[in-house]
Write the structure tokens for this entry.
Amino acid sequence: MNGHDYDLIIIGSGPSGRAAAIQAGKLKRRVLVIDRKDRLGGVSVHTGTIPSKTLRETMLNLSGWRERSFYGLSYRVKDRISAEDLKARLHMTLDYEVDVLEHQFNRNHVDTLNGLARFVGPHEIEVATEAGETTRLTASKFLIATGTKTYRPDYVPFNGRTVVDGDEFLEMEAIPRSLAVIGAGVIGVEYATMFSALDVRVTLIEPRETFLDFIDRRLIEDFTHQIRENGVDLRLGSAVERIEDAGDHVEISLANKRHVRAEMLLFAAGRMGATSALNLDAVGLKTDHRNRIAVDRRTYQTAVPHIYATGDVIGHPSLASTSLQQGRVAACHALETPTLPESPWYPYGIYSVPEMSTCGMSEEELQERGIPYEVGVARFRETSRGHIMGLEHGMLKMLLSLKTRRVLGVQIVGEGATELIHIAQAVMNLKGTVDYFVQNTFNYPTLAEAYKIAGLDAFNRMPIPEEFKVRRKEAITPEDPQN
Ligand SMILES: Cc1cc2nc3c(=O)[nH]c(=O)nc-3n(C[C@H](O)[C@H](O)[C@H](O)COP(=O)(O)OP(=O)(O)OC[C@H]3O[C@@H](n4cnc5c(N)ncnc54)[C@H](O)[C@@H]3O)c2cc1C
């Protein structure tokens, strides 16, 4: 340990800090996790992933959303589901998540300390507790896993009640009758569509003409149609000129001279790296315009090699899922333990209503890169499971290389998208081709059958290379749908 207090000190107990700490504990190294919040878990557990997904599940259950095409919306929506109804389940889930985390840390001998950490030298930090005490600690290696804070520009009159940011939103005392959301990024879209499912009048405001640009445009068209049908008033190309806190409501003036009035405003236009308290000057580290830290994306080392950074503080893709993965890889590298390299394709899940999930490239990206491709599409209503579930919408789009027949991207919108995408992820990372979907039997009836339908859709239009024809003849059986 070279005389240091710890082998690894981790600042932040969110997903990346948590994964790194448990990995270090498993390697029997001395590891400490510091968090300024008295409850472990980070943004993910307390204001981000877990609360928003618990809220979504609660809303869909209480409103009877999934069965609406058979029975209409549940009477509870009309009678108004209360904020208390939503919070009851939220607190149960969060308490459970924190318990599990504390138990994991105990089992793996991970030390924890509550306080605000700042560097005072290359191998030394100072931790200030809320009681005003300070402690100095040293380590061979550090991991910055401090995540992000909400972006709160001066022109937004935040009051924690009718004008709130993403972290304050879940503290609402009552469900508003109308909600304006500024920012059609992942968080804005998720909350806007969830509340619309509860019959709240939602206006989603985005200054740019497009939104969620990393997703295939055909999927976004389908999604836009669905959310508008569900009642979301989507205002694209609508820069905000002025926001006025009018006591019991909010008045929003848009640059295009339109006007929005709502009982509550959620400002969800971006987050900033939580680095300002770290005193990075003491170790010679710089941040970008969003206070994020640059790293080597293979090892997660910063410009100072014994200091690592993972999770949202390093920027895209800013997901709990990728943060967990990064934390573990960084800990292995820092503690000089060999591990497997990360797979290139990871899924992106957007838990809007309807949900969306993607893995790999979009059609626009393939066109930009000049890659020849074929497309296979399946609608959920084409599957028997979709009929049984009463799904009127939902689609799966598969992009395939014309040269290698490999799957290059899959995009799904609709029920179960965030679960279904893992089939695509497995096939892609195992270098699978369209033939996988044609050759293999899928459970019936399932929504996963959409893969088979989309695969066949593309397969039937794809040219078959000569040498491949020989192989295909051998492989085809009488039951093959192509025979
Ligand atoms: C509303 C919302 C919904 C989301 N939904 C999803 C989703 O569905 N799926 C998904 O994969 N991701 C989702 N995310 C993203 C996910 O929450 C983040 O990617 C993840 O939390 C980032 O983890 P992290 O390890 O960077 O740390 P974070 O979870 O950001 O935690 C950082 C911790 O560091 C602490 N800290 C900061 N500075 C200091 C300091 N100087 N000293 C001590 N402690 C400090 C903070 O108190 C905090 O506890 C969502 C985010 C939000 C906001």
Q: What stands out?
A: The first helix runs from residue 15 to 26. The pocket of flavin-adenine dinucleotide is lined by residues 11-17, 34-37, 42-44, 48-49, 52-53, 116-117, 145-148, 166, 187, 274, 277-278, 311-313, 318-321, 323, 349, 351 (CB under 6 Å).
